[in-house]
Automatic annotation (TrEMBL):
It comes from Chinchilla lanigera. Pfam families: Vps16_C, Vps16_N. Belongs to the VPS16 family. It comes from the Eukaryota. Keywords: Coiled coil, Endosome, Lysosome, Membrane, Protein transport, Transport. This is Vacuolar protein sorting-associated protein 16 homolog. It is a peripheral membrane protein.
Amino acid sequence: MGCYTANWNPLGDSAFYRKYELYSMDWDLKEELRDCLVAAAPYGGPIALLRNPWRKEKATSVRPVLEIYSASGVSLASLLWKSGPVVSMGWSAEEELLCVQEDGAVLVYGLHGDFRRHFSMGNEVLQNRVLDARIFHTELGSGVAILTGAHRFTLSANVGDLKLRRMPEVPGLQSAPSCWTTLFQERVAHILLAVGPDLYLLDHATCSAVTPPGLPPGVTSFLQMAVSFTYRHLALFTDTGYIWMGTASLTDKLCEFNCNIRAPPKQMVWCSRPRSKERAVVVAWERRLMVVGNAPESIQFVLDEDSYLVPELDGVRIFSRSTHEFLHEVPVASEEIFKIASMAPGALLLEAQKEYEKESQKADEYLREIQELGQLTQAVQQCIEAAGHEHGPDMQKSLLRAASFGKCFLDRFPPDSFVRMCQDLRVLNAIRDYHIGIPLTYSQYKQLTIQVLLDRLVLRRLYPLAIQICEYLRLPEVQGVSRILAHWACYKVQQKDVSDEDVARAINQKLGDTPGVSYSDIAARAYGCGRTELAIKLLEYEPRSGEQVPLLLKMKRSKLALNKAIESGDTDLVFTVLLHLKNELNRGDFFMTLRNQPMALSLYRQFCKHQELETLKDLYNQDDNHQELGSFHLRASYAAEERIEGRVAALQTAADAFYKAKNEFAAKATEDQMRLLRLQRRLEDELGGQFLDLSLHDTVTTLIVGGHNKRAEQLARDFRIPDKRLWWLKLTALADLEDWEELEKFSKSKKSPIGYLPFVEICMKQHNKYEAKKYASRVGPEQKVKALLLVGDVAQAADVAIEHRNEAELSLVLSHCTGAPDGATADKIHRARAQAQKK
């Protein structure tokens, strides 16, 4: 144990710090780090180097090279820089490299050096140029802060949703501040800058002078400032070598340290562990590294090479030409287990397990000691937790073996934490491999989440490893394997040295019908890469027409989109394509396209009937569809025309169309309607009243009601209304008028073609039994019973039915014998039936 803690360095009495090697860097750097712009992403992210040829002392005509490496020094990309001078670089939370140029343009590159996009920080920045810039991360996203040549600040808190904010001017600021940084408080980004002995805090509206509490006298300048990873704490390095540490709000002082070095440090970053009460700052000069905190002494390391510090959630990464190391506070669980002469339960359990492997009885003694104190559960938990914070697999295994050994002596220890830690460590060890180069700690991994880690593996095109992790952790397919395969397919379509057919086949063979994979998204990526034919082939595998059609329209394959929409049977989708085609094609081509698609043509006609009548007429004309054209003009004569002349003209056009369609009936009917309209106009002119738009029957009825019987009869003759129909019309009209005298005259004018039962029915409908009885006697024998029953003469109806010897009539009369007065009638019918049966 003593050997294991050899690299532990105490800071005061309550904390130890250790520095261990992550990787031996084999990158072939052509320049020293001091001569490059360096950007390293947190959470074990990539490193970008750009030789800085724009420094005056290093001016050269050779174009610089932008190089991107993994944290282990494996080259990911290298490209010749062809744009303007770069002032600063930084990585976004999505691991995109932001390069801030002197003219205020920000160029965004992917992990593999692929150019993504660019944006500008505004005209003021363009005019005054950029003196300095910072890329910072907040819960809102990744932001950029700019210091211009006019000594003004401009920032955007989220480059994904760019909203530029010009910060207030600092009164009397004539030169660049000695140091500055970004703070993030209450979801708002601020700028803290130092001008001589004064500090100023800029928010969106005001510039406030602030004073750190407890700052010693004699400070004439601030040389460096650093904000913690979580933006909660701030450190200030003064020209007297004094380091002030406190809250970022500058309301409380945590501690101070005098390093007795007045030279400005190259870098100063925080080194703290989540949920730890210890606070420490790491300060780096050319050949010295110092860890200071709330202790009278500091921890110092000698730097053999030019080094660069990367602040992390739970420590600091330090890389140089030859090594990449991690400096952090030793976690409590590790400290209790490995501290010299520790009697913590985890330390005793680890010793017990080692003695057990040696088959020594001391294992039982250690175990009994833990059990007597009732600390076996705590010991197992300590070993599990400490295993997570160890970087070396051998020590991880040793601690996990100890935890497994202790679990055997516990009745109800939940296995979840042990199993989960084993899984997490397998994942961490896999991604820490030199060829992968993501040196995440356990705390960083938990903060980052497995989904983000998978995204980062996909970003590095490490698809097999990502899939293995998903399968090992048994993640749902939609969140795991399916999503990764979709990303792989999107990358596959960018390989332009492979034919479209081969790429489409390879993607389909790999993906098949994997749930959660959208072929349309992959096809959209192929189209974005200029591979339209590949996109069409991929869409053939997309089962959802609603996803196929919009992309086909975007690719200007409208006719294919129409075929797919028709095959789907989704009328809304067909309408969408039709409206797109209508705007895209000229009218002739559009109509020709529709002629080849009967379903689409039918749907478009339905649309035109409600929205575009003129287009509907053009469709019928182009198809020589005279029948529908006649119907169109027929409807148009009533819908659009109010003048009788216009209506008659439209009807004449309709009649001509019907004749061309060889529909004699429709043509004759239309001509009759034209004659009726002219006659109705004449009737209105001569008689007054409302006749227009009445039907032929209603016109006759109106004339009868108005007492114009002769005109009604003449109209019936002109339009060949049958006598039966005319008698019905006249009968109904006179009954509605209750002109019973005229009705009687009409009934006697000649023999009724409809018989006299209708007279009885109409009179009873008007509740006039007296008049009905007049006509009941004139009803023929076959309808006599029904007529008598209508007027309520049940007895006479019974006599007639008995006389006719008709069983149906007898049953009908019997059904009307409901009251006591009809009892005799019912008996008479029963006797008649009995006599008929005897015969």
